[in-house]
Design brief:
- The structure is a single chain.
- By secondary structure, this protein is mainly β.
- It is built from 4 helices and 24 strands.
- The strands form 5 sheets. The chain has an 8-stranded mixed β-sheet. A 6-stranded mixed β-sheet has the order 1-9-8-3-4-5, covered by helices on one side. Strands 10-11-14-13 form a 4-stranded antiparallel β-sheet, with no helix packed on it.
- The longest helix is centred in the first third of the chain and has 11 residues, at 15-25.
- The chain is elongated.
- The relative contact order is 0.10.
- The structure holds 2-acetamido-2-deoxy-beta-D-glucopyranose (6 copies).
- One 2-acetamido-2-deoxy-beta-D-glucopyranose (NAG) binds next to loops.
């Protein structure tokens, strides 16, 4: 089936060759707008094309200008001249070709796949062309906030098109000139998708909001000021959003950003509390607040409330500091060893402003061997 021959190409013997020549010489614009298609980065995407059915089908998918994506004639795929970047990633729906379906499946979409594609078809009944314009999108999935040494870092990865990150505070706060420099950085990886990071000083008595926007999607992470509680007491951690905007949502509460406490599905009104948290979780209020009781110092940490709607995700993180005056918790008394461990350093470190999160994490880790209250 070599189509490389030089001599025979102009003699009109095989329609496959002729159409190849037409393709090379004639990139014609047709009337009618391109069909816009948005493909998800690294996902599969179908490029639609239909034609009036007839025998001796010839199909050429070409990315403009002139990159061979996929060809079909003599009743089979003809991939000798396929461009390297499409190798092993394309397929026609071969059994549908006789019905006039020349749609192309493109697998594992890359940023380089963006652009204008031509679908050229020919049968004994004539030929047709149509155009598709592909946009690639890797939406913002997760906005992460971390805090260390009074610096907040907000980051998100794997985004396309180029994201934008903005900080706001509630109430609004004027940074003094020395503080005004928040550093942002955006980088693209070898696949052409973006990661974004920004840092700023933690303003302790304000709510810090980080918003990452890409295309029409936006995701927000909010870091609230800390809440103090004492062991054994009750606490309500708010998850404050303008709920009227959020028609349907799922709510997830997490501890230290990866341990799931509970999930609440708005559609079904079902709440699922993880076993380890059954003793602490009292309820979730209508506004999404998490009501906890019987807390011990190992419950000190970051509580995050994530609300996802079909379009956006909002994340609110709240520090819960369990202050150290170790009143009677109504739980089994701890051994001296446990008490020494958990009370270590807290007496002198018990300032109103404390709570370096690094220390909190350590503290939580150290106490992981402390059996939970329900494991009697
Ligand atoms: C062609 O077939 C594929 C696979 O069944 C289908 O997804 C697509 O909608 C069809 N395209 C057209 C234009 O009919
Ligand atoms: C998708 O393509 C990337 C390179 O662009 C590759 O690293 C990855 O393994 C591919 N994934 C699949 C499922 O083929
Ligand atoms: C950080 O991003 C914001 C918003 O995009 C921008 O206004 C500001 O100039 C950026 N700062 C730096 C240091 O790049
Ligand atoms: C926040 O704290 C700063 C000093 O840490 C103080 O000057 C400011 O008045 C406080 N703002 C509010 C709203 O409490
Ligand atoms: C909520 O979660 C369920 C399953 O966990 C999922 O099917 C549904 O699409 C989610 N709804 C939203 C709005 O994200
Ligand atoms: C308690 O604190 C002291 C210093 O403050 C330290 O040397 C010791 O290792 C700590 N003990 C534990 C169990 O963390």
């Amino acid at each position: 089936m070599g189509s490389q021959g030089t001599g025979g190409q102009v003699s009109i013997t095989t329609r496959g060759l002729v159409s190849m020549v037409i393709l090379l010489l004639h990139i014609r614009l047709t009337d009618g707008a391109d069909l816009p298609v948005t493909c998800g980065f690294s996902e599969d995407c179908v490029l639609r094309c239909s034609f009036q059915s007839g025998i001796e089908e010839i199909i050429h998918w070409v990315k403009l200008d002139n990159i061979r994506v996929h060809s079909y004639y003599y009743s089979k795929d003809q991939l000798e001249n396929q461009d390297q970047q499409y190798r092993q990633r394309t397929a026609l729906f071969n059994n549908q070709i006789p019905k006039g379906n020349a749609s192309l499946l493109l697998r594992n979409v890359t940023v380089q796949d963006q652009g204008r594609y031509k679908c050229y078809t020919s049968t004994i009944n004539g030929n047709q062309e149509s155009y598709i314009n592909i946009k690639v999108e890797a939406p913002v999935r997760l906005v992460n906030i971390q805090i260390s040494d009074d610096i907040i870092t907000c980051s998100s990865t794997g985004i396309y098109p180029k994201p934008k990150l903005t900080w706001t505070t509630d109430p609004p706060f004027d940074l003094s000139p020395g503080q005004a420099d928040s550093q942002n950085s955006t980088g693209t990886n070898e696949q052409g998708i973006y990661d974004i990071t920004s840092t700023k000083p933690f303003i302790r008595n304000q709510t810090n909001i980080c918003t990452v926007t890409s295309g029409t999607r936006e995701r927000t992470a909010t870091l609230k000021q800390q809440i103090n509680s004492s062991p054994g007491s009750e606490v309500s951690i708010p998850c404050s959003f303008p709920l009227s905007d959020l028609l349907t949502f799922n709510l997830t509460w997490r501890f230290n950003q990866d341990v799931i406490i509970l999930t609440y599905n708005m559609d079904t009104h079902q709440m699922q509390v993880e076993d380890h948290w059954k003793e602490q979780v009292q309820d979730v209020s209508e506004s999404g607040s998490l009501q906890l009781h019987r807390l011990t110092r190992k419950h000190q940490g970051i509580y995050s409330c994530e609300l996802s709607t079909t379009r956006d995700t909002h994340l609110v993180l709240t520090y819960l500091e369990i202050t150290s005056d170790d009143i009677n918790t109504g739980k089994k008394p701890r051994t001296k060893k446990e008490r020494d461990k958990s009370d270590n350093g807290t007496e002198e470190g018990k300032s109103e402003t404390a709570s370096n999160p690094g220390e909190e994490h350590e503290l939580v880790d150290r106490q992981n061997d402390d059996p939970s209250g329900d494991a009697e």
